[in-house]
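[Meeting: bench + compute handoff]

Bench side (C.D.) handed over the final construct sequence. Compute side (W.E.) agreed to return the predicted structure before the next meeting so the bench team could plan truncations. Sequence as handed over:
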Amino acid sequence: MRRRKLVTMLAVPMFAVGLLVAGCDDDESAADQTTLSAPAPLAPASIAADDQAGDGRSVTVARLTLPAPGFIVIHADGGGAPGPVIGHSDLLPAGDSNDVEVALDTPITSSATVWPMAHVDVNVNEAYEFAPPDEATDAPALQEEAGAVAVVPIEYSVE
């Protein structure tokens, strides 16, 4: 089921770009045509974070590699899998980032598992747009092997 949701999330932005490109008339001059950039690549990405303790207002991700500009998104636990989004980083560059602190929109009030996940700015507008089921433009980044989502569970202890 998770794979189907990911495929659906990825298909929507690609379909939208296809419609925009199909709507361009070949007879228009180059000056009149809108230039579309290709959607950002989703792989390869990696993420590493250690178990940590704090006041519940932020989570630090030790290492992140993105294939294109994107975000670190912190998910609450959803029964042993990523659940609702509780915070996200500002836009990060493609490549490696270290020790990224992510402020949480919803503070952690008791010790819990949280899920840092790499996301790509698919439509390249520098804004985080992922709040399923209503908004799923920016997609989770994928690891190189088997196309798995770049996500890691960590234990967070509230002090």
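W.E. noted at the follow-up: The helical segments are 2-22. C.D. will use this when planning the next construct.
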